[in-house]
Amino acid sequence: MENKMGNSTINFKSFNLSTAEDVIKEILTDTNKFDHLDYLPSLDNALSYTNGAYVKNTAFFIDIRNSSKLITKEGYDRRIIARFYRSYISEIIAVLRSHECCKEINIVGDCVSAIFVENKDKSGEYKDRSDVIEALESASMFNPLLGIINNLFSKHYKRRIDIKAGVGIATGEALVIQAGDKGSGINKPIFLGDNVNTAAHLCDKANNENYPYFTLTDQNVKDNCKRYIANPDNQTFADFLAKQFPTDEGKCFYGGNFVRTPFNDRLKELQNDCNF
Questions:
Q1: What is the DSSP letter of 276?
Q2: 163 secondary structure, DSSP code
Q3: Collapsing DSSP states into helix, strand and coil, what is residue 24?
Q4: Coiled coil: which residue ranges (predicted)?
């Protein structure tokens, strides 16, 4: 018996509790080897169900604001939301894939997450951590691109559509393991690290009433984007992350509303042409 969803095929298999206990005991007695790497290991060749690797990375999360209320409170038709989600997720993935340091992309509902891993050659070119710079570049591109999507939908449906999103970015080291059901073909790399959790939490906060900034980052991100020149005015991404917020743990995170200029110019053209 097969259950097909998207590109995945799930083969039916009866669950056996005794077998499950054996699998858990086998995992518990593994002599795991966790190396420290400066690249993301391959699921096919390097990662197995008994090892893992510590990898320095930058985690990126983007999520729609108040998505559960778009139909009930805002009154958007489900077909509009479905088409919006398709456009939104399609273009996020396109933006992320345009950066070489982006090594992993995941979609859960309307949240898209990505893992960027440093490319040493690009870091030399940027004079800053390349994974950090490319995650910030992705945020700068999608900020006005979301406005373009809203504008095109508003024109098509002849009503104002203003759906918002927020981005969280954090840098650190994560333990990467392969997780899944051995032999089933269902497996994914799992990233276990404080920076991944931090990026997810910052994404939840971003672009709401208390934190009116499209992008929120941790201290490590700001510390690693101070040299790369991001615009003709010789400003860096650290200059754009000007708003500081203290945390209960005595740390800080930072907010900014920076945009990719050609994208923003196109958004302005569309806005000048719109009657909604």
A1: -
A2: -
A3: helix
A4: none
Burial 208-227 (b: 16+ CB within 10 A, else e): eeebebbbbbbbbbbebbee
**Cα–Cα distances in Å, from 152 out to 11, 66, 78, 165, 179?**
41, 21, 17, 17, 40
- Contact between 276 and 160 under an 8 Å Cβ cutoff? The reply is yes
Q: Fold for 36-272, please state it.
A: Alpha-Beta Plaits (3.30.70)
**Tokens 């966790």 found at:** 34
Number of residues assigned to the chain: 276
Rounded Cα distance between 212 and 166, Å, is 9
Task: Give pLDDT, residue 43.
Answer: 62
Give the tokens for residue 264. Answer: 């923003």
Where do the domains of the chain lie? 36-272
Tokens 């999360």: give the residue. Answer: 61
Question: What pLDDT is recorded for position 193?
Answer: 94
> Computed from CA positions of residues 168, 134, 116, 253, in that sequence, does the dihedral angle turn out positive or negative?
negative
